Amino acid sequence: MCGIAGIFHTEGLKPVDPDRVRRMCDAIAHRGPDGEGVWTAPGLGLGHRRLSIIDLAGSPQPMAAAEGDAVIVFNGEIYNFKDLRKELQALGAQFRTDGDTEVILQAWRHWGTDCLPRLHGMFAFALYDLRQRTLLLARDRLGVKPLHTARLADGSVIFGSELKAMLAHPSLRREIDPLAIEDYLAWGYVPDHRSMLKGVDKLPAGHYQLLRHDALPAAPVQWWDVSFADRDRGNADDLGAHLLHHMREAVTSRMLADVPLGAFLSGGVDSSSVVALMAEASAAPVKTCSIGFDVAALDETAYADRIAQQFHTQHWKRSVSSDDFTLMDRLAGMFDEPFADASALPTYRVCELAREHVTVALSGDGADEAFAGYRRQTFQHREEQVRALLPGALRRPLFGTLGRIWPKADWAPRPLRAKTTLLSLAESGEEGYARALAVTSPELRDTLYSADFRRLRGDYRAEQPLVDLMRKAPARSGLDRAQYADLKFYLPGDILTKVDRTSMAVSLEAREPLLDHRLIEFGARLPERMRVRGSTGKWIVKQTMRRYLPDDVLFRPKMGFVTPIAQWLRGPLAGEARGLASDSVLARTGWFDSSRIASLSDDHICGRADHSRLIWQLLMLRRSLDLLG
């Protein structure tokens, strides 16, 4: 695991200052504390920070091919590199190291961009071909590893693993994209199709881009996608056997490391499944780490303890206290762009704990997206059944009217909190799912904005790219489209960004075995009844893992990393919440109606409503604006 950065001139072969590349890399030194390197040639500079995981002493970067005709900087891990190495050696390739980086170089030399589907793993890399004078930028299938790019006024393209590497370049303009504010308030993060800064792009997951010295940057090319258009046949036992095979291969392939390795253990289905399969494959006790809360209703460590005892792991745990909100500034610095998923705080804490004992940690991320484990997906499945029964001409006015008049009862029992469901049923399946995924509704956002910002935003609405993505999805059903959206939009924008930044902040490599692309593709072909039955999502995963895990772990209600921000904003952070309306930084933007912010803050602090997620969003936005300056 590493950090990469570089500069490429698309207009001629102007020299690149190696110190400038080095400063870009220094900004992401936390991603690679074990080594650094810079390589320059006319028109190009490549920089690298290394966290040593495999071939600890023998694979420094930037790395040149043995033939001297290609150079690479690489962030990630290729889990099938040994098999590829044998295949390439049979084709005449020569190797001087024992790691995976040189395998990518030789794979490019022999197969060009066709090498990408052969790479099993997580990666973002920049590879320069001296014969063709071409730079290849590539990102893994699911977007586990990030890569930002920007074209500067002098015709150069800069790139880096994190935005802070780009900010170290003095020519990068720091102009906020107002549409990113609309996106951020809708989702709680800035999705991959946008950046907080105008002119900065994120290479999409499963895409590559080719840059040449004498041409404008080519548009990114998609080299992988997941299809829900086909269905596998078989009974639960047969499909479960295939599932278990894929899960075992995914876990064992990610246990390869020349440094201490362990796992995150929350006590939920997914992390417990990963730990169970690690224990099955390991002769030594698995090292596991858990984070709990000092608020009993949010604490899951008892389940994690049970799994740790069952599989005899070497287990460490730590509690997040109610005053951990003091990490807000540190979190903002990790993400560069505003990021309001409050589970980033416990995720950072568990990474911090893990790094005290291991250098690599396996996580359970990905199964909910791949196998329909989110409650919103099971709701979508049922809502689509209702939509199929009622024509839109009847459904829209009926449910739309009910949804508008239904009170927003955050305090009420769940069955009485029907406002979102009613509004969703009034819309198409894609629009309804966008509403379910959004953390701030379009109606609430509109009340926050000033008249000037509404003019800046124009006709754009944050939900539209997601709706378009779902409508174009290679899918058969509404559930398929919902999962496709989660895999292509939510997963890289929120979950994987969170895990990458919090783990890299402490120089820890996180690996996600349940995001093995073969497992994802298998899940996409499953019949719907194998994914959702009644209100139970991830059905086949839970049935298959019953041979390893107890039912009260498999079938208990999903909790996730819940953070007590509602209590914080009525207690120790109440002053900050009240101060948002008069904050000078937010006021200078001219984006918001300060009286509306004041009203929402007061309603939350006094307990009349729960606006904690929105207030947290505004607090994190305020801190990010300081950093982007």
CATH H-level superfamily title of the largest domain: HUPs
Largest sheet, if any?
Answer: 6 strands, antiparallel
Mean pLDDT: 92
Tally of alpha and pi helices:
28
The CATH architecture of the largest domain can be named as 3-Layer(aba) Sandwich
What Rg, in angstroms, do the CA atoms define?
24 Å
Tell me how many strands there are.
17
In percent terms, what proportion of residues is strand? 5-15%
Under CATH at level 1, the class of the largest domain stands as Alpha Beta
The backbone outline, from C-alpha atoms, is globular
Uncertain regions: pLDDT < 50 for 5+ in a row?
411-416
Structural class by helix and strand composition:
alpha+beta
Strand order of the largest sheet: 2-3-1-9-8-10
Number of domains: 3
Written account of the structure:
With 629 residues, the chain is α+β, with helices and mostly antiparallel strands. The protein is built from 28 helices and 17 strands. It folds into 3 domains: 2-176 and 196-222, Glutamine Phosphoribosylpyrophosphate, subunit 1, domain 1; 225-559, 3-Layer(aba) Sandwich (Rossmann fold), CATH 3.40.50.620; 564-629, no CATH class. The protein is globular, with a radius of gyration of 24 Å. It starts with a strand and ends with a helix.
